[in-house]
Input
Amino acid sequence: MTQGLLSDLKKSLMERSKFHAGYPFNLNYDYSELLPFFAFSINNLGAPFIPSNYQIDSRHLERETLAFFAKLYQAKDWWGYVTTGGTEGNLYGLLLGRETYPDGILYATADSHYSINKAARFFKIPHTTVQSQTNGEMDCEDLRSKLNPNYPAIINLNIGTTFKGAVDNIDRILEALAAKSIKDSHIHCDGAMGGMLLPYLAPEWVNFNQPIDSLAISGHKFIGCPFPCGIVLTYKELADKLASHIEYIGSKDATIGGSRNGHAPLFLWYAIQKRKHLFETEVRECVSKAAYLHRQLEKAGLSCSLNPYSTTVVFPKPQEATVQKWQLATLGNLAHVVVMQNHSYELLDRLIADILEMG
Ligand SMILES: *Cc1c(COP(=O)(O)O)cnc(C)c1O
Output
């Protein structure tokens, strides 16, 4: 009975993994060397920098993992932790903004991920929706007109929006803040997927030398991992505020979770050791394949789009059978493909044929 169900599940997972194009999950990885570590209850409970009495942990690898991302984003005096995914990183980053500026207003575009609304709701942060340009990027004229000069601003800056892969322009955001003489601001960067693309394509576009305050990236998206995970980075000084605030209510930990997955840092650390010299090539290959997909669909007469620093190709929603077969994400009459490492040109050609034939 159990055997049968397990082998059915395995078969279906294998089949569904073959035709997957809609979500930004890199399915190309080999963690088989780490299988023996599933015999251990690895738990990094508490923070990565504070030892705990529970010693079956991977905190030293968690710190090395974070150091990789800190270097990638030119962060100094940083603090961070390995999260359960991009969502937890966004919750944490926006909570930091809320704790730093209790009367702050959150500004985010409607193209932002739903976890941003979730953070506003959970933490009761007043929330203003800013208009997007058609490519999904923040309309900074609209931001400027909506910024309330009497309150601090908590801003969600997207490094790759969920549906269109748009990257917001930090210079325009800073100009809008300056135009309204707003000095108190917390800029959180949501780089769930695009956060691993941008530093390899345009490292000066967004990094910690600019006045950003927190950054969230998913681990299971570009890097790829059998289970969801991610990282969040901020300044030590900001994190300390939150930590001491929680201390005040009787807890010493500084993270959203209590018990924390100790396998996640191990997997991320392992992927980084094996592939860090390859990440740039992987990024460039995905961008080239996305440009190819975009070109082929355009040649066939479909109106489609691909943002700079993105591998997300948006096109008119094809027939439901194609959406189902390729597990495409859709929004209204649009669909997208996020081109990842596991998508070969041959696979993209089959996808294109299906879109064009059945669409
Ligand atoms: C996927 C995504 C998230 C959420 O990340 P999870 O790892 O799924 O929690 C947040 N923001 C953006 C822009 C995303 O694309």
